[in-house]
Amino acid sequence: MKELALILSKTQMNNGQVCMGGLTWSGRHIRLFDKQENYLPRSVDLAPRQILEIEFIERKNNKLPHVEDILVLNIGQRESLEDKISVKEFLESKNISIWRGHPDELFDKLIQWTPTGKGYIDENGGVPSHSVGFWISDKDLKRYDYKGVRYQYNSRIGWRNIKYKGIEESVPVIPAGTLLRVSLARWKTFNDEEQPKCWLQLSGWYDLGNRSD
Question: What region holds the Dual OB-containing domain (predicted)?
Fold first, then answer.
């Protein structure tokens, strides 16, 4: 299958590889793997806002919520989205939903929160139909460092924090109104946990400082 795709995220993996995510021109969320079902190397010559012509096949046995995985067979002509339209305009042209407001709205309102404010989903609480999405926060997100870079959202009903996994340099504050890409990490258990979880993470942002609503 061949289709145009827009790359929208490049996130760091713990093994020196990167996870590349995007949207096809038909409006489908995708996550790029090589033919052997491996994540791409960190040195891969791909970056957010690139438009690519890709040839791909479906990755077999995708497990909810990670239904976006495809195996890339070939990458053809590429160009940049810059100076054409904004990412938000592109999303709107493809009728892609954007969550707005409090982070409790994310992923069909299925995110659960630990006492320290970290978000996750598990099978007991319900599994959403996909693992990536776009969000416009109604409050500034402030950076703090704890086991990596995190961004904190404060509200009267509790504070939330989201780990940042993008490759772009972090900033002290992400202003309210900025378009963000969020995702759910792969199923994993830590320590003595009996049930695996998918942890909420921040993949990147677009048009930093320019309100999107």
Answer: 6-205
Last residue of a domain, one of 80, 106, 124: 80
User: By the 8 A CB rule, do 187 and 181 touch?
Assistant: no
pLDDT at 193 over 80: no
Rounded to a whole number of angstroms, the CA Rg of the chain reads 17
The separation between CA 79 and the C-alpha centre of its own chain, rounded to angstroms, equals 22
- 107 and 186 inside one domain: yes
- Whole-angstrom distance, CA of residue 77 vs CA of residue 53: 6
CB count within 10 Å of CB 184 equals 25
Amino acid type, 190: F
Nearest alpha carbon to residue 62 among 101, 16, 30, 108: 30
Using CA of residue 32, residue 33, residue 39, residue 40, what is the dihedral sign?
negative
> Mind listing the pLDDT tens digit for each residue in 21-52?
999 999 999 999 999 999 999 889 999 999 99
How many domains is the chain built from?
2
